[in-house]
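Please, structure for the following, as tokens.
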Amino acid sequence: MNPIMFHPITLEAWTSDYKINLLFQTKLKNYLQNYFLCFRSEPQRKLFETFIHALLSLLECKFIEPIVLHFFIKKYVRPMRQFFSWSPFKEQLILETYQKLLSDQIGNSTGILSVDDTVILYNT
């Protein structure tokens, strides 16, 4: 996992600059592959990957139905709901994978963890 620098306009840059967007998509895909062993099937992995993409997108409403309608077609609403409701995936392994990746990154000699609860609201 390589660190990705955060900047307040990062989401806008990812979506407006094709080269940056492609780089981000590649890094995200590589990162998410760390979690693929937590899921039993390819459809589960695809739903997981799509949901993460949606959370990082500029979608205003990040509920299941708007996510599916933006990234898929209407017939995938039920599978996405079932993914969160009944899908047998390894929750503990997801948590352990996340903790390992985080530990590796902040345990690195150049790693740092910064926790800041500052919220800045912009009027548009």
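Residues 1-8 have pLDDT under 50 and may be disordered. The chain is about 55% helix and 0% strand.
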